[in-house]
## 1
Amino acid sequence: MQIRMNKAENIVTYQDIGDVRFVKNIRARNLSIRINQQGDVRVTIPRHINRKQAEFFLESKKQWVKKKLGELNNITGTGRRMQEGDILNVRGKSIPIRLRNDSESEEEAIWRILLEEAKEYLPERVKELAFRHGFSISGIKIRRMNTRWGSCTAKNSINLNSWLVMLPGYLSDYVILHELVHTRHRNHSNSFWDELDSIMGGTSRRLRKELKSRRIMYFQ
């Protein structure tokens, strides 16, 4: 089921697999789905195929996509999957993974824990950084995102991935400031990067590169 569409970026958010980017490629011969190491899902659409057909194709392959995302998700640096009783280290806290009932998986329990921690920390941090740098926002939402760290709506509401609390503070601040700058610059123009880099003391490009090396649902 689709839950959100960003027409400008050709991104559709699906409830069970997260964000999917649809890209038209006139040189492509066939519809294809690619998933990179960060879990980004991309559907390539040939010239003779329309968007509705591409979405139907994705629906037909959704179980495969979910399987591949599952192979990337929920693993430790040693390749072992997180299990009940393992410890999550969240902003200096050691939190054991405990399942609420027989139907809850370890992955669901992890996201539940992180959502609770993120709602406690991120809204105040967003307000603090917005006030410090003179940004005005209309709202803050914290939720599970499988492929994105954050987003900014046309009404200047900030959406953040609850997984941000698993990143070092300077990287989560980078994501927050990235989205705050989008309240003034809607795209990734030179003006956008110049303002972000000015706010971050010339470190934005280095942090952007570091963030790309991080994976959601990967434990180090």
## 2
Amino acid sequence: MEKPAIPPDEAERLKALRRLNILDTPAEERFDRITRLARRVLGVPMALVSLVDEDRQWFKSAQGVDAEETAREISFCGHGINAEGEFVVPDSHADPRFADNPMVTGEPGIRFYGGVPLRAEEGLKVGMFCVMDRKPRHLSTDDIQTLHDLAALVEDELRAERLGEARRELAASLREAERRASVDHMTRLWNRSAIMDLLRRELAVALRQRGSVGVIMGDLDHFKAVNDTHGHAAGDAVLKEASRRLRASIRGYDSAGRWGGEEFLVVLPGADISGAMRAAATINRRFRDDPFGLPNGKTAPVTISLGVAAAAGREPEDAERLVQAADEALYRAKKEGRDRAEAA
């Protein structure tokens, strides 16, 4: 049996886990409904929300597993937090890392394992959302995407109570008509005025809580060529799909706004510069990996250039200055060849 390696950021990872204030709390329906859904949708007997503590893995939610925790040194999840993406073991009996693991040779008899890391707001991996079976199996591409989607729901629940204060404040301060006017109706993102209001509020929250805020300024590459080649209807379709991909790339409590034209601004509560750069890398991949479908039935490759900046909540920070820093980094990304992210 191979014991899981300790991640290089272990000390910071454990601090992030502690800040969630969730270890050893009672079971909650908001997590249990996600693990039940995983069993039903993926057709597996076991599903877990597993948080990897210093010397144990503790289950916030467990379906098909009676234990509340196990030793970290025998955990599959301890291996999983070292993965950048999904961690899949199709057949533990054929894998020398796990063939003689007591969780394989004894209860619960794990033969198949598939998991996705769960990240705290700083981007640090605090655990795994995983499914398991007592027989070998493979996950299809759709199954893996489902696993990622369910893990994202768990992450939203883990962090919902710590963040989102600024958005709640903004929504409470606006009348219904003002809320509608704060949304860009082409992309269904916040408009420029509203996203700047949110950024100012997030900076105020960060100052009170001694946290941090990251921002990403994005600009679609060669967007004018899409309009010139395929028409303005195609340009509108690209903007709508770009906003969808942007929303899908960020966390549930992050905010995205249309800055103007084909430019976007993303506000990342709790993110330092490294966390914001990780978010930017996710956005770049999601744009780059698949061409955009157009109304004429054709497709077009669309990429995005990104400028990243962050502020630590140790002294008052000017929102305009932070956006300017991100915009200057975006200019460098464009100058260096596009389809990339540069940090301020």
## 3
Amino acid sequence: MTRVKICCIANEEEARLAVSLGAAAVGLVGKMPSGPGPIADDQIRLIAESVPPPIATFLLTSEQTAGEIVRHHHRTRTNTIQIVDEVSDRAYQELRSALPGVKLVQVIHVTGEESVTEACELADHVDGILLDSGNPKLAVKELGGTGRRHDWNLSRKIVGICGKPVFLAGGLNSANVGEAIETVQPFGLDVCSGVRTNGKLDPDKLEAFFDAVNRI
């Protein structure tokens, strides 16, 4: 079964709703240069503490050095870290040593064939890869939450060769998630704007999304 991560969770009520409808993971967004959903670190920690096992709690961090990523995690205490930007000096082993038992998921922003190479290189260092549609090269970085699709054929190529669980994000909704699963065959899906109305988690959209996933 394809796992579903509901991202941009704002409070404990949204977390409970997502989990009640079948979410295998919730995404909690720390400070970002742009995009939806950032909340304070103390709020992330409260939500993470409220989520029952075995649901995964993802801290989305834009920090790039191992030290800052570790400190961000210490403030939030999630069981998974989603690294949305490049890690300086590829200091993944430092992260592993400092955070034993915490899962690491590296975001790859799929922009072209070079993203396939990048995903395969970084997969050896992390527990999972998440494919999104941002652009970290802009003056104001886009590190997620764009609501845009990228080239799913490239994503399928990454799934086939990277050797790690792969989550697919970027422009997903109940109307296209079936196509996404059939095309990419990901381990999991990550959705934010596709299940929200005016920025708030929409129970009807959320239920429709899970219904579409479960039909596949």
